[in-house]
Amino acid sequence: MDLMFRSTRNAENKVTASMAVLKGLADDGGLFVPETLPKLDVSLDELAGMSYHETAYTVMKQFLTDYTEEELKYCINHAYDEKFDTKEIAPLKFVDGKYYLELFHGATIAFKDMALSILPYLMTTAAKKNQEDKEIVILTATSGDTGKAALAGFADVPGTRIIVFYPKNGVSAVQEKQMVTQKGKNTCVIGIHGNFDDAQSGVKKLFSDKELAKELAGEGFCFSSANSINIGRLVPQVVYYVYAYGKLLSSGALKPGDKMNVVVPTGNFGNILAAYYAKNMGIPIEKLVCASNENKVLYDFFQTGVYDKNREFILTSSPSMDILISSNLERLIYRIAGDDAEKNAQLMQQLAKEGRYTITDEMKERMEDFAGGFATGEETSEEIAAVYKKTGYVLDTHTAVASFVCRKYFRQSKTDLPTVIASTASPYKFARSVMEAIDSKYSGMDDFDLIDELSRISGTAVPRAIEEIRNAPVLHDKVIEKDEMEKAVKEFLGIA
User: Is the pLDDT of residue 496 over 80?
Assistant: First the structure.
């Protein structure tokens, strides 16, 4: 029996895995979730000897059940190839008593590569399986990393076009340069005057506009998403938590059945939700620690049971987490509401109208797997400096948030369990913030001089992704107001 996926806002709206990947967002605005969370069909012992590719197939076949073994292995083998600069794909580094799961060895040096390297293959396979004859238009909002990773994945993929919206002054210099220099005849990058939430809300509005969908269909186009709202993004992320457990087993740090903690720097909630899915599949995870920056809407939610986006939006040194509407949290809300689509839809409607909602005490009790913490900008910088001074290991700003929260959680909970920190980006992507945290003397240097200096002090090579953009020409320079997104999409598709 195939595992079916249903909308978080209408339990009757059921589709196959491939259709969920193809559509991205349900017609009612909900997110697709599996009807039941599947279990691993291998023992924990067996995980210890698996490669990343083998682990990926073991996990993904349980979710994507209407893909054949041949189709799924084709997608996996073409995604996790020489684009990654390490054979392990996701190395686990032991530094100062903690395990950093390095998720930044792909083409764009951020964790989004782990899922966005495979999504184009999953999507084009899904299009064939479902006899989709329209050109797929990938519509994506980014807080910095998803955009470049999606662009790299979909550039010049036949039958697709990709449009990425990003907050003009809300990403790092390297993140912006990576996007605006992107090649590919089917790519479009647009800055908006606004923040990430404005971009994300605008994209969701375009997805839910039925008149627009009809107009696009008449011109031979259909929308899909590369954001983490797409289940095809979420499932590949489950893989690396399962893989990390296997690596701890093979190194002797854990015995089968022993528990580990996981700490994840979180903005849109997809990365930590993937760890939650891994736990539900049978991976012995004790606590899922949600690490926030000063935009601590998730930390406050876990403390109080009130989700409230009505607050100041703060631009921080960890811009990929500068988010007040965490889209993937809806999948958790649906689950802790007892898979009650009607209850979830009410809460999401409240969020849209009032900017806040409150969960019940019963729902709050069902979140006991999670703990939360946050780091200020100053604490983030201090963590980068402290870890470098003690070990020579350089953290990016997002990983530093998680590292600080992890140390604080260790102290408060007195836990001695092996702990995996999701290291979500290369320090080279945020070289200015990282280098200024290590020493204020770097504050006057040029961005690329800082990158060369980072290479020198860390003893690591400048990643290919950085070298490629060093002198690359800007190919996308369009900047619009946030209410002009529909017009911009139509212009790019030639139907304005």
Answer: no
pLDDT band at 1 (very low <50, low <70, confident <90, very high): confident
Helix axes 119-129, 69-79, angle to 10 degrees: 150
Structure-token pair, residue 435: 């280098």
Choose among 279, 344, 282, 276: nearest CA to 307. Answer: 344
Q: Answer yes or no: are the C-beta atoms of 75 and 62 closer than 8 Å.
A: no
**Token pair in block for residue 201:** 């809300």
Q: Taking a C-beta distance cutoff of 8 angstroms, is the pair 458, 427 a contact?
A: yes
Q: How many CA atoms lie within 13 A of 402 on its CB side?
A: 29
pLDDT at 295: 96
Decide if 493 contacts 137 (C-beta within 8 A): yes
Give the pLDDT of residue 227: 81
Q: Please state the φ and ψ torsions of residue 489, each to the nearest 5 degrees.
A: -65, -50
Residue 60 near residue 76, CB atoms below 8 Å: yes
Active site residue 112: yes
- Polymer length in residues for the chain: 496
DSSP letter for 441, please. G
**Amino acid letter, residue 197:** D
Q: Is 417 exposed, middle or buried (0-12, 13-18, 19+ CB in 10 A)?
A: middle
CA distance 18 to 162: 19
CA-based nearest residue to 323, from 426, 425, 209, 171: 171
Question: Are the C-beta atoms of 120 and 160 separated by less than 8 Å?
Answer: yes
Provide the token pair at 197. 């939430």
**Which one of the listed residues 23, 83, 98, 112 is annotated catalytic?**
112
Cα–Cα distance for residue pair 383/364, rounded to 1 Å = 31
The residues that bridge with 374 in the sheet, in sequence order, are 292
Beta bridge partners of 423: 102
